[in-house]
Design goal:
The protein is α/β, with parallel strands linked by helices. The protein is 45% helix and 17% strand. The protein is built from 15 helices and eight strands. The chain has a six-stranded mixed sheet, sandwiched between helices. A two-stranded parallel sheet has the order 1-2. It comes from Devosia epidermidihirudinis.
Length: 350
């Protein structure tokens, strides 16, 4: 009898634990990002604050974009995915709609008060952004003699030295830079004239000593002096400057580079996912603190009001800097991604 009672007691405890476990799980949200320092900054400034306010625990998952979308496609046949929120690029807003729920800023109560215009793109919401910009070594080009446009990047006589461009993964920014250098007005860049862009790239190709493949590499080649100028991410360039490296960059002609939140169609916690995205858009002070740890802009347009005039002038969200950046036609990028990427690969292999 004792054994029976003991087993029954254990069984009841196990059932209670299972019920409690399910209750806890119902208050969880799984978010996929690139991991590393970005995930740490999100945890510090947004995830923990959201959990404190709502009681919903956030489970972070790290994944590269290629692996992420492969798993999303594999999970699409399941009643419920393992993830709720994933990372998207703007062209994924058009290319991956089969897997994502539509999101309107009209349905996010914080959007009208806090968000930049265009934050919601239909199936994804802006998370962080910067630009692929022209950066240079200030020892090689001191103030007053520094390049200011991509036309200067192509001018190897006035601005001598080895250069760097990213590989085919960043084909859209490379082709935009080439067209700017060739004198195409920003408003006429899209749809991209690929023949004209590749012809311009042929001119600079002999002077490109590095076609970088990772963001870390883009920093290292400037840090070591392997190149004197490069097209690179503004966040990475800002980090080098913060570290005291002799680096500067210009927002002029910078090609917008945006990371986004998207919610899977078969996400198990859609309501919590939308609640988090709405929470993320608010709280300007948190956005400022996040950007100080991780030098990217966010969609909160009021955050820059909390900065000093000097700091504001250096940020991509400053109106003067926004005005000189290029916003790609993301739909065109999505529709032409495979063809342009392949053409870039073939160009680099020749």
């Amino acid at each position: 009898m004792k054994r029976f009672i003991r087993q029954t007691t254990i069984g009841a405890a196990a059932c209670l634990a299972m019920i409690a476990s399910h209750a806890v799980q119902a208050e969880q949200l799984v978010i996929v990002t690139s991991g590393g320092v970005f995930e740490e900054a999100m945890q510090k400034h947004f995830y923990s604050a959201f959990t404190a306010e709502t009681g919903i625990d956030i489970i972070p998952v790290a994944s590269g974009l290629g692996a992420q979308w492969a798993k999303v496609q594999a999970m699409a046949t399941l009643p419920e995915a393992e993830w709720d929120i994933v990372t998207a690029l703007p062209h994924d807003n058009f290319a991956m709609t089969d897997y994502l729920i539509p999101i309107s800023c009209d349905d996010l109560s914080n959007a009208a008060e806090f968000a930049f215009e265009g934050t919601c793109m239909g199936h994804a919401v802006t998370r962080t952004w910067g630009a692929n910009v022209l950066a240079w070594n200030t020892d090689a080009f001191p103030e007053g003699k520094a390049p200011q446009t991509f036309a200067d990047f192509w001018d190897v006589e006035a601005f001598p030295g080895p250069r760097a461009l990213p590989d085919a993964s960043y084909w859209s920014s490379v082709l935009v830079a080439a067209l700017i250098a060739d004198g195409v007005p920003p408003e006429d860049i899209f749809p991209i004239d690929a023949d004209r862009a590749f012809a311009k790239l042929e001119e600079i190709k002999p002077h490109i000593s590095v076609w970088w493949t990772t963001a870390d590499q883009s920093q290292n080649i400037l840090r070591t002096g392997e190149v004197v100028m490069s097209l690179m991410g503004s966040g990475r360039a800002s980090t080098l400057i913060k570290e005291g490296e002799p680096v500067a960059f210009t927002w002029k002609g910078g090609v917008k580079d945006i990371g986004m939140w998207a919610v899977l169609k078969n996400a198990p916690h859609k309501e919590a996912a939308l609640k988090f995205i709405n929470f993320f858009l608010a709280n300007p002070a948190i956005h400022v603190a996040f950007s100080q740890d991780f030098p990217f802009e966010t969609p909160n347009r009021l955050a820059t009001d909390l900065l000093s005039p000097e700091e504001r002038a250096s940020r991509g969200g400053d109106p003067a800097n926004l005005a000189v950046q290029i916003t790609p036609d993301w739909k065109w990028v999505a529709e032409n991604d495979a063809e342009m990427r392949q053409r870039m690969i073939e160009f680099l292999s020749q």
